[in-house]
Amino acid sequence: MLEIEEYIMIRELHAQGFSITDISDKTGYDRKTVKKYLNLTTIPEPKQRAKKASMLDQYKDHIIKKLNEAPFTASRLFREIQEMGFKGKCTIVRDFVRKVRPETGVQAVYRYETKPGVQAQVDWSEFGKADIDGKNLKLYCFNMILGYSRMRYIEFTLSIDVYTLIQCHLNAFRYFGGYTEKILYDNMKQVVIKRAMISTESEWNSKFEDFSKHYGFLPHLCRPYRPQTKGKIENNVGYVKRDFFLGRNFSSFSDINSQALTWLKRVNSEVHGTTHEIPLDRLKLEGLKPLNGVAEYLIIREEKRTISKDCFISYLGNFYSIPYRFAGREATLQIIGIKFKVIVGDEQVCEHEILAGRARVSRVKEHFKGLLSEIQNENKAAMNTSGQTILKFENVEVEKRSLSVYDSLIEG
Q1: Where is 282: in which H helix or E strand?
Q2: CA-CA distance, 311 to 348, in Å (whole number)?
Q3: Which helix (H) or strand (E) holds 136?
Q4: CA distance linking residue 280 with residue 271, whole number of Å
Q5: How far apart are CA 351 and CA 135, in angstroms?
Q6: Sign of torsion over alpha carbons 125, 129, 132, 136
Q7: Could you tell me which of 297, 33, 18, 17 has the C-alpha nearest to residue 6?
Q8: In this structure, are residues 309 and 321 in contact, taking their beta carbons and an 8 Å threshold?
Q9: pTM of this prediction?
């Protein structure tokens, strides 16, 4: 069948007075074909071409179903259908996902790029709850991404306090082999107490400020109501949920982070969608500040406790003895790694190794030395003052009476 343009051309030549033979000579079409199309009263409808079978056809329903369940990445779906037997490349999957993915109404923003070694971005994100030792605890994910290379680091935690934040930074620094000049945050209380108009003049969390000064990096705050200023980390948070977390099974809390490290190894070795380069290759150009040039930072976690009358404090469900003379007083626990120090006033009174498990007791005999004798002495003193009162009389004067008094008593 001729195309519509060719049909119109034949009709125009005929209207100009050309014969069927002349039109056949000019167009190269057979005279019967020319005559056939001149006799048509309507424009010919183009025939629908048979669609060419695609090796993706048998997997399209699965992809559409998964996209309706959650916003999975094309890479994630590609890996799934590979396990189902798909032999094609990821590009055909990406093209199909781009066509059928439900629209989310993302607004366009200006992309901010950074130079090597200058900036990293950090954020927390919630990932629902996890059943840990029979307790329903919130699950969080720490995210850090290097601005230039797009190297990612993630770590799942059960807390978002400042001590956990610092530990996650240290783990990320070790993973990257260094750290950047600046790190960008939103207004998280673990970093900033009171924000100022100029980011560097803000009132920082004292614990986090001590950590940042130790390594010499500058914490920066993103502009209020402008989350796109840290768009790299925002995109990474969503990517972690879609490409790693959704639809995956975990046997324990530690298994989550074990699988996360395996996932990081893969994504940091793949071509990044924005830079079109491999993050591990670009990491070599980051020029990060080396960790070996700075002494290791000790994370000292502090918590308040009241020492019980029986001379114990509790920590993480276990009990630890304290020298008896401090019973009833308030103490500060300084937790460093697997140990903690107990400070009362300005004095370090003892140190304990942190016990595993719960309902266990760490009792040091020396903490009670002398207590029993003191209690016995106090009891003896109390017994001496708790009996009947004995009256003592000194220089007793005897009344002297006349004998006539006694005579009268006898007579009466």
Answers
A1: helix 279-283
A2: 15
A3: strand 135-146
A4: 9
A5: 29
A6: positive
A7: 33
A8: no
A9: 0.62
**Lookup result for tokens 């807390």:** 159
Task: Take residue 56 and report the two structure tokens written for it.
Answer: 């993706």
Bridge partner list, 145: 121, 152
Q: Number of helices (H) and strands (E), helices first, in the chain?
A: 13, 14
Q: Which residue has the tokens 């070790």?
A: 174
Name the residue among 152, 182, 183, 174 with its Cα closest to residue 292.
174
Which residue blocks in 125-205 are alpha helix, DSSP H? 162-176
d(CA 341, CA 337): 11
Pull the structure tokens for residue 109: 């923003």
Q: Could you give the count of Cα atoms lying within 13 Å of 346 in the half-sphere of its Cβ?
A: 0
Tens-digit pLDDT profile for residues 264-318: 999 999 998 888 999 999 999 999 999 988 998 988 889 999 999 999 999 999 9
Residue 203, strand partner residues: 194
Q: pLDDT (tens digit, 9 = 90+) per residue, 202-221?
A: 788 999 999 999 999 999 88
Closest CA to 93 of 133, 140, 60, 141: 60
Q: Of 371, 305, 308, whose CA–CA distance to 340 is shortest?
A: 305
d(CA 382, CA 375): 11
For residue 353, the SS3 value is: strand
For residue 365, give Cα distances in angstroms to 217, 354, 355, 358.
46, 18, 17, 21
Q: CA separation (Å) from 18 to 2, 3, 22, 168, 318?
A: 19, 20, 6, 84, 105
**Residue in this structure with the two tokens 């840990």, named with its chain if needed:** 132
Q: How far apart are CA 80 and CA 63, in angstroms?
A: 9
**Would you state the structure tokens that stand for residue 83, as one six-digit string?**
């396990």
